[in-house]
Amino acid sequence: MTTEKKGSFRYISAVFLITFMAASAFAQISPGPLTTAHANLEGLSNCTKCHVLGKQVENFKCLACHTEIQDLINQNRGYHANPQVRSQNCASCHSEHHGRQFEIIHFDTKSFDHTLTGYPLKGKHATLQCRACHQTKFISSSEFEKRNGTYLGLSTSCSSCHEGPHQGTLGEDCASCHNENSFKPATKFKHDKTEFTLTGAHKKVECAKCHVSEVRNGKPFTQFAGVKFENCVPCHRDLHNGKFGEICEKCHTTVSFTLIEAKTFNHNLTDYPLIGMHADVSCRNCHGDNLNSRPKHALCTDCHKDAHHGDFTVNNVVENCADCHTVYGFKLTTFTIAMHDKGKFRLTGSHLAVPCESCHLSSNSWHFKNLGTQCIDCHKNVHGTELTEEFLPNDNCTSCHTTATWDKVAFDHNKTSFKLLGKHADVSCRSCHYRKNSAGVEVSVFRSLNPHCETCHRDIHFGQFAVQTKGGKFSECQNCHTFNNWSPTNFDHQKTKFPLTGAHAKLACIECHKEVTVNENTFIQYKLKDFRCAACHSS
Length: 539
Hints:
Blueprint: H1 3-29, H2 59-65, H3 67-74, H4 83-86, H5 130-133, H6 142-145, H7 207-210, E1 213-216, E2 219-222, H8 283-287, E3 313-314, E4 317-318, E5 325-326, E6 329-333, H9 337-340, H10 356-360, E7 361-362, E8 365-366, H11 375-378, H12 429-433, E9 434-436, E10 442-444, E11 466-469, E12 472-475, H13 509-512, E13 515-518, E14 521-524
Antiparallel strand pairs: 1-2, 3-4, 5-6, 7-8, 9-10, 11-12, 13-14
């Protein structure tokens, strides 16, 4: 071998040796090839970009390169910001030097705890596959959007995945109204938290009645924000055509349009102020279905039926009801006694205290004309046929009675065949003229009353002095007694069949007239049958 050839061989051998020794040394430092994502970091000069000399891979080295993760940690957002995750080494999950095809990002989607991301999966979200949400089209960051299969870059905002039907008119906080179980109904929505609280009948109105649906921007849209509600007119038709302004709540409430708030509506501003009971009458009683109507109101009969059925109609015109009645009540009449006395029947005595309905109300109907002015027109003749025409002419009770009281009788008994003498003058009429009939009912008797003493008084002589008369067998008490007392003032023994002479004239009556008992009746025997001396004197 020439010297030139030997020199070339030595040079080639030296280069080969150096190359072989360098390859052997690198193989001793690097445990294996990096993944495709980190392939640009191969080589001894790049080791310190990930490794600290003499130490393992430090997190700050990873985050210095992976700034997007560092930004999330700084914002305390996402999986890597969770204290449980950020306390671990990056290499514990993302191991390297396993070859170009090694899957450096790998986790079990079935066992992954999504709560660690700061966004727990609830409701319908918990039933979805990962890739239903983790799609490129939902990634909001342009940096993450370039990465194939990444789980990063999603926002927790509903609108990042769901197309909002409200087209941004209600803001981005969907959770303030909706939940994760179902978009409809909006269970969290409370109308009371809006500027228009639902009260009264508004609570029963369907949403669509106020929140109309339309097509906006080529898509179905229901308007919830921006609905006018400064007054009722935007939703309700003004039945009054603006005559009372646009502040409807002055008269109406949300309970019902027909329920007029009497406390707020001032009817006195009209030409018919509501006074008395009119203030409590329902508006529809006068106005009907058209509250804008102007009913007649000049006369009471324009609204009210004539309760007197024409009794106060003169020349086909009803007299003014206000002459007797007020708006504070139909029964509360202003018709005075002085006004009554101007009529055909003056009120006197007890008639002054009699309520009007006692005379003027019959069969639930009031009557004022053709009632009659005689007692018999209102009062029953309690005497029947007991009083003859002589004492009750034309059924005129005033021949005996007055209007002061029924019991006070002004009757001259001396005009009858039985004059009241002595004690009789002090006896009440009832003592003689009231008797119980066969039914046990007390009735008054006059004509049929027998004038004999036994009719009222008990015969203590038990018929000793009875004589036959037209009306029967009665005693003639007046032969011995007067009406002043019971003593036999009129009795004259000398007019009897046994005149008293001699010693007889000095005897007491009881010496001759003894007490006897006949038929269980004990009495003094005045009428003696035997006048012989032996009848009284023994031998």
